[in-house]
Design brief:
Layout: E1 2-9, E2 32-35, H1 40-48, E3 63-64, H2 67-75, E4 80-84, H3 85-88, H4 93-96, E5 99-101, E6 106-111, H5 122-137, E7 145-147
Length: 155
């Protein structure tokens, strides 16, 4: 189990660009570019903002199926977005200037590999776990985070 912090991606002209660190109260859901409905990271962001998508009427909605598109939309001054920390490693140097970390404890999501122990391919699952662990271990800090779980859908 790992904890991946959230990072704000904020264009230089955005009102939050001058802040050193973000807090959840800084986030205006009207300004946050979100992934499409059905993505767990979207639910994480709505939970961090303390809202349901239905609770917040929006003038217009721009959503995407990829983090890359959200970054491009923010670069076009369409708003700001939040990214999982590991995704920020792929940004170019100019884009990394737009990253804002959160004050401690940082909001984060839990990353887990769940599998049945009775699985016949347990060796493959263990090998996958070791590869993922070796990649993530050096990239993610494991302390002082606040887990933001996806919101439970109301039925």
């Amino acid at each position: 189990m790992y904890y991946e912090p959230f990072v704000g991606y904020i264009p230089s002209e955005h009102p939050l660009a001058s802040k050193q660190e973000l807090v959840a109260d800084d986030l205006d859901l009207q300004e946050v570019l979100l992934l499409q409905d059905g993505h767990c990271f979207r639910d994480n962001i709505l939970n961090l903002c303390g809202m349901n998508a239905q609770d917040t009427p929006r003038k217009f909605t721009i959503e995407s199926g990829s983090f890359e598109t959200l970054v491009q939309l923010a670069d076009e001054r369409m708003g700001m977005t939040l990214l999982p920390y590991l995704h920020t490693l792929a940004l170019n140097e100019n884009q990394k200037k737009g990253l804002k970390h959160f004050e401690k404890p940082e909001p984060a999501r839990e990353i887990s590999l769940i599998y049945p122990k009775s699985e016949l391919k347990i060796q493959i699952t263990q090998a996958l776990k070791e590869v993922i662990s070796s990649v993530i271990r050096g990239a993610i800090s494991f302390h002082d985070v606040r887990i933001v779980s996806p919101k439970q859908k109301v039925r």
